[in-house]
Protein 1
Amino acid sequence: MMIGIVGKPSCGKSSFFKALTNMDVKIASYPFTTLEPNKGVAFVKAKCPHTELGKKCDPNNSDCIDGIRLIPVKILDVAGLVPGAHLGRGRGNKFLDDLRQADALIHIVDMSGKTDENGLPTDNHDPLEDIKWLREEIELWVKGIIEKVWAKSDDSIIIKQLTGFTPKNETIAQCIKDAGIDLRKLAHLVCERTKPMLIAANKMDLPEAPKNFERITKISKDKIVPCSAELEIVLNLASSKGLAKYENGEILIYDNANDQQRNVLEKVREFIESYGSTGVEKCVENVVFSLLNFIEVYPVENENNWTDSKGRILPDVYLVPLGTTVKEFASMVHTHLAKNFISAVDARRKMRVKEDYVLKKGDVIKIIAGK
Ligand SMILES: Nc1nc2c(ncn2[C@@H]2O[C@H](COP(=O)(O)OP(=O)(O)OP(=O)(O)O)[C@@H](O)[C@H]2O)c(=O)[nH]1
Ligand SMILES: [Mg+2]
């Protein structure tokens, strides 16, 4: 699973990336601070089934803290996009190619209106404009990719041209069918179906932002999550320095914080009281579990102990699209399992299931395959 972070220069992409991944990347108020993409890992949370088993798990591809499984999601932070990027404006469209593999995009929008479409300081810029042109820019990039082979008018060539956009060729085939001879519409459908986008209304800590947010959420049909990457960074830093603790939606400020630190942390507290959180993690949770509708599933080899061949309890967790069958899941775990698939066992109910069994959130599954 990979999520791409997009947006105009200086909207806060790298700040958002740093807040999520705790990686120390370059952040500055001038445009095109980021040139080479930053790659990192964030985590989405789910209740770990080991709590039902009464035995501690041995995570391999993830982590588990206090009964909560932390499931890794790759995050990609790229250079800022400007209007005309698909024609090579700004830093060109070379980095757009890095977004090919993304399962979804988070569009970071500077909700304060204090930067223009090129990321330069201004007043009263309308963030709604950014939401519109950025989507268009991404679609025109995809249109440019298809255009190179469009004259050949062969579906299989177009599908090949869009390799990496989605693991499912059928998705592209359906887009081609639905778009007919309309190339622009095809680009739109490919984006809509392979690059769903969540809007992160960033810089909500600035006084100008809430008014824009209220206006835009009323008229936009996008999923928009209010957030402040900056305050999330402050909170992470304060936690790592032992100045504060964030737990169950509450901030506990310790006595060793000085007055200045206390003031900033009070600002974070106020923000969290208004919006429920800093919104950064919520964006990723929303993408994975709502926008993409993925569920987490645990493959095991022993249906009684929920262990793998090495005796590790619930070692791995996979994020799969809702609607995935157990046979499809087998192919995600190992091609051998899919090729020699016999049946599977729902390890929670200790019941055999057939290949067309549709997986549920939190399923623990043993796949039975021939040699
Ligand atoms: N007040 C406030 N400022 C923010 C927030 N997020 C980012 N900023 C500031 O916005 C400026 C740009 O932040 P970056 O994270 O470098 O933005 P970017 O989108 O990665 O920019 P480029 O790499 O140049 O495209 C910096 O001065 C940040 O401190 C936020 O949530 N609130
Ligand atoms: Mg950046």
Protein 2
Amino acid sequence: MAPDPSSPAGPSPGASSVSSGSTASLLAAYLQAAGIRHVFGYPGESIIDFMEACRHRDIEVVASVREATAAFMAEGAAMVSGLPGVCLSTLGPGSTALLNGVAAATLDRVPMLAVSGQIESSREQFFTHQVVDHGRMFAPVTKLALRLEAASAGTIIRKSLRTATAERPGAVSLTVNTDTWALLANTGAAGRDDLILPPLGPPSGSFGVYGDGDPLRALRQARRPVVLTGTAAMRCAAGPELVRLAERAGLPVVVAPMAKGTFPEDHPYFAGVLDMAGHRVVGELLASSDLILAAGFDPAELISPWRVAAPVLHVDTTPNTDQVYASAHELVGDVAAIVGWITAQWSGEPRWTQAQVAAHRDRLRAAWLDGRVDGQLNPSDVVTIAREAAPPDTIVTTDVGSHKLMAGQAWQAAGPRSVLIPNGLSAMGFGVPAAIAAGLTRPGTPVLALTGDGGFAMTATEMRIAASLGVPLTVVVFADSSLNLIELRQQVKGYPPTATRTQASDLPALAEALGCDGIRASTPAALEKALAGFASRTRPLVIEARIGTAQYETQF
Ligand SMILES: Cc1ncc(C[n+]2csc(CCOP(=O)(O)OP(=O)(O)O)c2C)c(N)n1
Ligand SMILES: [Mg+2]
């Protein structure tokens, strides 16, 4: 039977997937309305109609070298902008390759739309070549895995955007059969404007209280309370309120890695980053407190178990459903508004002096430098030299491994969303693609990727994308010929370094082959020289920083 052109789900007359009214066009229109300027993907036949619809809407389709990195690019773009990151794959081998970055977005609490094409609907239920069940595959690593159908397109697109951005944010998978793109979309807007963009952020202004009695009683009675803040505070832009509270009540503020920059790191009450290098010193501070004010802290960022005996006051955008720590009271809503309210209620004396917090920071600094060996390039030297060479507003990414623990503690953040650290899934292979996406999202802002040599090897060929797109990003590879963090775990158990030693590659030569500049630096002076003129570079640069690992062995 011929489809009925007047039906909302029938093909539009003279159909093309890019004609206005098509499902492809509606999805692209929503992304454009949401302020999304790039989608990151790898082509396949089942998505070419959507890529074309994006082009018509001035949304740039950035082709990565493979789907896995496209997803990390989308995650990096979302971390910088706060808007949903969008990645794109074809069916089967494309969608399976996308999976790690999609899971990363969910556990890193970053809003993401992962769009995957699918074989045409008439064959999907029985055909086997390249067909995997996206709904079942994506379900455990997303907040929601849906099929986009023309008959409900507007509603499903809004549901996807709202679900991805609702607290806590994460990934939504959208599967689209290849024949669906050209179908006339039902906007689901009941005759009103075709596009009704839902709110795409956290709550603002309001909050609710759970638990019996006065939620602030324990805080008022506490003598050594410490604030532990994290990504929900960043999303609620709670930094200025946290500063007011810290100054008024005299509270040290520990920040979780993915929220770096939310609380200014040059502030007298800044008390370090959780679970990075020097973690014992930060752990001692938390253990010595008599109340933890968890302000938008997400336990997904805990690397070691929660060992703090002090009671916790839970302040967050979501109720304490994790129960990683116990809390008798929960203040749930806009973290900035809640912290502001707590400050307004405060009438006691400051609990900590600035000098006490400064002494704690001195101990933390000493712990971070512990194990440094004179006469070689230490991991802490790389962080220090890079921070000095990079302009203050530089966006930095890290990968995962020993280098992340060093950089995460001591890289001084310019502000929120300027330090992109994967610390929920903690997937290697994030640093380079996320930095490329950051450069595209914030043109003109200097971008630096700090990565291990293992993580760089996973993603090095993406440098050719940076070169062809003209993103002048600088990558510093902590080159130790080792999957160091895992090799150290083997050492602790007395095992030899099975499968954790890697052969050194000639990274400058590799960089040049990919259209980038490349330099090797084995001393602090050579690294300083390599990083000179950082902000005025016009080509991507890869620096192979040949480090000694003694400091890691002392610390981790
Ligand atoms: C995709 C992925 N695979 C494996 C791991 C486990 N892992 C964590 S750190 C690490 C070593 C990373 O080595 P490298 O990139 O060289 O960084 P380094 O520790 O040497 O600084 C590994 C294998 C991971 N986190 N992610
Ligand atoms: Mg390494």
Protein 3
Amino acid sequence: MTRVFDEDLAAGFGTRAIHAGQRPEPLAGAIMTPVYLTSTYVQEALGQNKGYEYARGKNPTREAFERNVAALEGGRHGFAFSSGMGCLDSIMKLFKAGDHIVCGENVYGGTFRLFDKILQHLGLSFSYVDSRDSQRVADAVTPLTRAVLVETPTNPLMRITDLAAVAEIAHRANALFVVDNTFASPYFQRPLEFGADIVYHSTTKYLNGHSDMVGGVAVVTDDRLAERLQFIHNAAGAVAGPFDAWLALRGTKTLHLRMRQHDTNGRQIATWLVERVGAENVYYIGLPTHPQHDLARRQMTGFGGMISVELGSRERAAHLLNRVRVFSLAESLGGVESLISQPAGMTHASVPPERRAALGITEGLIRLSCGVEDVGDLIADLEQAMQGMPGEGRGARGEGQGSRRARDTIGTARP
Ligand SMILES: Cc1ncc(COP(=O)(O)O)c(C=O)c1O
């Protein structure tokens, strides 16, 4: 089982990002962790080995990445998986038929699909609640509840769960508190510090940050829980391959730098969008107009680059999505490059339409993953793509004084 190097925990976040979990390689002293492309390890004699037997169980590249993320989250044990969904599926194997899970209602579409289309048929039951209101979480708990699972901020509606309050509710029920921290990254939010038992990520997103691999990672502090996860990790086998682990490990070295720039760009683009389409149509937790901004400030140290915008109709959304040139129309998020998508037809297509409508994931909602390009180019791109927007005046305010004012501030605003 991979355990952080305790001495790494004394360092600041940037130092951990670059060094935690990694020690010079013993053969030549390579400063970068090698990619251990091997399926098995030669044993010195029967029953004697260097601690490595077969690569599903352990791989040194994967271990370095697991230790690194565990240190970044402030936890003790990390487990790297082949995808975010593979990670969640393995976490859910901690439970058995008959167990009940309370789940935030606005989770990634694939999370809902896994629960609704697969795990429900294996005997787990789920209650979906608006976890912005901790009381609703408490009300959904039953004697069979074994876990409370939330995403915060949520994908794509940027809703926030009060981590400390929900941790207490879960623990009062002897249930595990599981948090998907993909949107915030450990640079801005560390759920274990608020009482979460398991924090997990799609490493495909901010942790890797370069859109060149798919992966997942879970971090826990409790040794017994880690032993159970370790068993599932090896027994179910959805482990990260060494090259993907290496790519993700290279990504985390710049996590702090990238997140600061995502945040700077996100704040400026959100401010511009407010002037362009109105605060009521812009979902960005860094805006003081976001209804949960104060809670976000209490449990996060920054807000990142994820913004959703209500444009009022599919036609208007398509107008913008089909005209962007610097933003790319694509699923996923968290890479250095800016992406734009329509959750209803893309990331959340697996959520039934009536459920999407009830949540507010409309056909006119678009999601921006603001990358780390020059923010002036990103805003100019949105500006040109919005020109001639059908029904101008219904949601968008048109190019007026507001957008000119926003453009004047580009490059000067600071978080
Ligand atoms: C918040 C969140 N969690 C989990 C996942 C699933 O991760 P993966 O695509 O790496 O399987 C995603 C994917 O978009 C996501 O956005």
Protein 4
Amino acid sequence: MPSLKKIAVVRVAIIGTGGMANSHAKRYKDIKGCKLVAAVDVSRERVEKFSAEHGIANVFNSVDELLAWNEFDAVSIVTPDGFHAAQSIQCLKAGKHVLCEKPLALNHADAMKMVVAAKKAGVINMVNLSYRDWPAIQAVQAVIASGKIGDIRHVEASYLQSWIPSKVWGDWRTTSAWLWRLSTKHGSRGVLGDVGVHIVDFATFPAGPIKSVYGKLKAFDKAKGNRVGEYVLDANDSAVMTVEFANGALGTIHTTRWSGGHANRLFLKISGTKGSVEIDSERSTNSYKISAGADLDKAQWKEVACKPTPNNYARFIKSIRTGKQDQPDFSRGAEVQKVLDAVIASDAKGVPIKV
Ligand SMILES: NC(=O)c1ccc[n+]([C@@H]2O[C@H](COP(=O)([O-])OP(=O)(O)OC[C@H]3O[C@@H](n4cnc5c(N)ncnc54)[C@H](O)[C@@H]3O)[C@@H](O)[C@H]2O)c1
């Protein structure tokens, strides 16, 4: 494996300049030791507007053009899900460090090709499982690892959105960023791939790996003929899983885009032999609740404030500058992808699937 060259100022290019790319650009601007130097999008109009807004000097229409220019060290890949694998591998082969949006790929086999390419290149690789940025999940992971709530018995996790029955994030019928998420031909694995990936990571980061899964997916009718223009609306918009963890605990994990009243809510409760911990993002992402010790017998809870944690962008840049790979890396992205593949197989066959 090639040794990492330490870099004083990391020159970053952003590939894909739609909605989420704005978060990448804003976060990078807050980090010392990195500079946004280029942006890429197939839409000339979008990439120019984005670059003007974020003060980025160089614009390109393809990854090929970016690589031919070559005056950068790292990329953020923020294109629709179906492009992640090919674009990551292309950049890794050129020796560039890669922060790739979630889901890492459309299936575990492609995700593993990305893991292999990253290992071969010997560069920093990370997947943007962005809720790792919340102090509450880092603290809960540490509490579970400390043994404070004992052996895990039960896990309850959900990720609820409401952009299909509502206009909470605009009208999905007229917005390409929502329409591609509803169409398998446009490279979407539905709500499972879009945000199921987050809640599986959110649950398994503290509770450990999933051993088997029984999953049900559903795409509900939502437009005439179930299509809008070129978009066939066939990707799942509700996903329900019954899981068994490697440590023997049982759990339910579910996600939907139909949960009116919840724009973007993550909930996690982990119960063990000595107590329970809970995160509800609508209450706080900087604190969690715990019922343990003397509180357990009274069914009482305490709210615990958490110390700040670095976001994934800061972890990525620090990893490049120090040469020390941080989490969540591509291997972790592939691990989560394996669970998603098992849910799809379980739904198709109607039986539980070993992960
Ligand atoms: N981590 C998170 O919490 C989070 C949140 C939102 C989105 N995302 C992820 O970010 C990615 C982008 O989502 P979005 O909401 O910004 O979508 P979007 O549709 O708003 O933006 C995608 C952009 O990519 C461009 N594009 C399409 N094909 C391209 C190609 N081959 N080369 C270069 N550019 C191309 C499009 O023109 C568009 O500007 C998705 O993978 C999504 O899952 C992650």
